[in-house]
Amino acid sequence: MTQNTKNSVKIPQLDLKAGLGEYREAVLAAITRVVDSQEFILGPEVDRFEARLAEYMGLGHAIGVSSGTDALLVALMALDVGPGDEVVTSPFSFFATAGVVARLHAKPVFVDIDPGTFNVTPAGVRAAVGANTKAVIPVHLFGQMTDLGSLYMEGGPAIIEDAAQSLGARLHGEMTGHYGLCAALSFFPSKNLGCFGDGGAVVTRDPAFAERIRMLRVHGSKPKYFHHVVGGNFRLDALQAAVLAVKLPLLDGWAAARRRNAGRYDELLQQSGLVERGLVTPPAVAPGAEHVYNQYVVRAARRDELAADLAARGIGTAVYYPRPLHLQPCFADLGHGPGDFPHAERACAEVLALPIGPELHAHQLEAVVDAMRAFHRV
Ligand SMILES: Cc1ncc(COP(=O)(O)O)c(C=O)c1O
């Protein structure tokens, strides 16, 4: 317990050490195995993890790559996205979602989000798709899948699901990657399945697409030193794959604990008086969605003051994301201004991610909500 100004509570927004005991020994054994083998690049550890991930997701092919960013990038490269092409996506996401589009000299076309789920809507996407649209990237933000309804089935532009935050989530019973051409995953340490550094994967049922990703991951070569297309070094390290293979069987248990904690927050907030006064709004879950709560994100009327007050009480929070993508300086040439995507802009001003790790106990969640009530004097 660390002493701080208002009381002795200490609840970090993210506590990766808390769950370590559950898998520490197994992970160290796996790392030792890799060290002893000295096979660090691709090889059996990566093959094994890819096979387990594909099986877990019920899709035929998983290709481990160097990060979630590279999973998105290589998926767009596999579709030959380039100058003159448009990619429809959300302005309320981590930068990588649109950054990869711009890196291929294609144009990100943003559509506004639903204020409840923070995800784009079928109507918004439909209106933005045009003759130059090569792909759509729905972002399954915070652990909840985007419901694009019949758009997933309509045979329009390729749909690359940005599932960086939503491995294990379901929509109408199906996991990420089942609706689109592929799911792009991130294993960044703060994700529900995190590795010990950077890592990612592309998961798909399409064998030809999978083959193309495998080739692009090693500079477009097959066999080695014979290059069919220009790819990159997008490989997942064997060490990371070994770590991920140990953690994957634990993922669903962690997601269940996150859902339990989210349910408690929902109840506590409803009982707190904060919701009815419009001071704090819990996140909405769309019909048919099974959320995995990579983040539990509320809207708060006086967000920045509240966050500072919680910090002074020893409670960590985070803002994902403070500025929408269409207003980032690097995208100034797209010509957007304030007011273009009002729901995304408002979300940036109001969202606050509370501690939601699977290790948290009921009394800690109560302490968070009590602190929010104390700030608002409710
Ligand atoms: C929605 C979203 N897309 C893409 C990424 C990129 O993943 P990475 O950090 O592994 O490159 C992240 C994670 O940071 C993310 O949250």
Describe the structure.
This protein is of the alpha/beta class and 378 residues long. The chain has two domains: 229 residues, Type I PLP-dependent aspartate aminotransferase-like (Major domain) (Aspartate Aminotransferase, domain 2, 3-Layer(aba) Sandwich); 126 residues, Aspartate Aminotransferase, domain 1, CATH 3.90.1150.10. Helix content is 35%, strand content 13%. The chain has eleven helices and 13 strands. It has a seven-stranded mixed sheet. The protein has a three-stranded antiparallel sheet with strand order 7-6-11, with no helix packed on it. Strands 10-12-13 form a three-stranded antiparallel sheet. Helix 3 packs across helix 6 and helix 8 packs parallel to helix 11. The longest helix is centred in the last third of the chain and has 22 residues. It is globular and about 70 Å long. The model has no long low-confidence stretch (mean pLDDT 96). The chain binds pyridoxal-5'-phosphate.
Q: Could you please say which CATH topology of the largest domain applies here?
A: Aspartate Aminotransferase, domain 2
* Multimeric organization: single chain
The separation of the N and C termini measures: 27 Å
State the domain count. Answer: 2
| CATH class annotation of the largest domain | Alpha Beta
Strand order of the largest sheet: 1-9-8-5-4-2-3
The amount of beta strand, in percent, is 5-15%
Order of helices and strands: HHEHEHEHEEEEEEHHHEEEHHEH
Number of helices: 11
Known CATH architecture of the largest domain: 3-Layer(aba) Sandwich
| Strand-pairing-aware structural class | alpha/beta
Helix content: 25-40%
> Major β-sheet, in short?
7 strands, mixed
Shape: globular
CATH superfamily of the largest domain: Type I PLP-dependent aspartate aminotransferase-like (Major domain)
Ligand inventory: pyridoxal-5'-phosphate
Instruction: Please give the number of β-strands.
Output: 13
Mean pLDDT: 96
